[in-house]
Amino acid sequence: xxxxxxxxxVLALSACSTLKTSSDYDPAVSFDQYKSFxxxxxxxxxxxxxxxxxxxxxxxxxxxxxxxxxxxxxxxxDQADLLVNYLTKVNKKINVDTFNTxxxxxxxxxxxGWGGAGMNTQTTVREYEVGTLxxxxxxxxxxxxxxxxxxxxxxxxxxxxxxRVEIINHAIGEVMMNFPPKPEVK
Length: 186
Fold this sequence. Notes:
It is built from 3 helices and 8 strands, in the order αββαββββββα. The strands form 2 sheets. Strands 1-8-7-4-2-3 form a 6-stranded mixed β-sheet. α2 packs across α3.
């Protein structure tokens, strides 16, 4: 059941403008030194934070494509400068909206004079899930995390495999837009 939620989290990363991306990096690192990458090898069978099957393949292909476009070569782990890993998570959120509507003025004459109005209050509570995909780049020599990017969006179901591929490619493209980081001009 947990894997179903994790798979749904990546499906959430849609092409809508609601994507929230962020990235962080070690400013002491010169990213020009990195020329190659490889994926982190699984050390155990803990798959609670990785996707299974086709979605895992789609995420890896999208990251491979983005890093290759940025001039890095995919190599075997023992030859890599950077190690790549990703993880996913799902957070439940609650949205509470209250609407006050007045529906007219009804004049009447009573003991206290003229007046009268109608008011209606409606409160809706909606639970939804936000899926987050995090991409980590680790310097193989030092073992230190040098760059992390994340993308989050509300989970939505997608119908076709083509839509899923397009969504993953767009989401990874958005998160990898900030890699390598540009040095700040002072």
